[in-house]
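Collaboration report, partner site 2.

Our partner group contributed sequences for two proteins of shared interest, and the home lab folded both. The records are reproduced in the order in which they were received, starting with the first partner submission.
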Amino acid sequence: MMNDHFYLVNFEAEKTREKINFQGKEFEYLANGSSGIHELALALSKNKEQPVYPLWIFLDKNRNLVYYQEGLLTPDKMKEKLREISALQWVGKR
């Protein structure tokens, strides 16, 4: 299911230092002493002050948010959400 309909991007907000262009905007790593965070993580997070990890964000092919969850996501819960999203995407094509 994952390989057929979804593409996983593992984004490490505290380690990724490259500039990223997303939805026409450029996001950079914000250093804070010996640590820091990437602006893209802040832009995608609902908790702008202190993002929660792990953060799961599912976007559709047009990069619109379709599911958001802070914290752990069990394999069963992920399968359930992916099935729900797949069903919604299929219904939208009718």
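Second partner submission, folded after the first:
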Amino acid sequence: MSFSFLFLGNLPLAEGFGINTNIFETNIINLAAVVAIVISFVGKNLSALLEDRRKTIVNNLQEASQRAAEAQERLNIAKNQLEVAKKKATEIREEGVFRATQEINNCVAQHEERLSKLEEFKQETVQFYQQKAFKQAYVYIISRIMSRVKERLNKGLDATYHVVVNNFYVSRFTEYNP
């Protein structure tokens, strides 16, 4: 009767030890022996090594998760700072527009005030020169009248002039009602 060993072939019973020339069977037996020796001697070390590797991987994953959470938190902080900066920039822009508008209004008001002062000065200047012109005309007319009076006085008074002056005063007396 034959007994099958791992489907590798038929081994006769009770024949004892001998040289097995089937390379495939011997390789499997050798491999099984090596695996058994490795597992028995290296098994604990290998399982410890695998456990250390598992712990390292778990720690790396936890650290990566923690770093990701920290990065997310820093990102949120940066986003908040960006929003604050945008609000501040908007406020600064609005304040700049407000100040520019205010400055323009101040300049316009100052310009209008200067224009009104210039208009007032112009009116005063025109009035001054009008008064000066009237005064010069008045002085000229008075000087002409005075020169004509002097001429008349120097020439002497003739009879017709006496009659005109006397008639003037007589007419004034007749109009007088006390």
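Feedback sent to the partner group on the second submission included the following. The helical segments are 23-155, 159-175. Confidence is low (pLDDT under 50) at residues 1-8.
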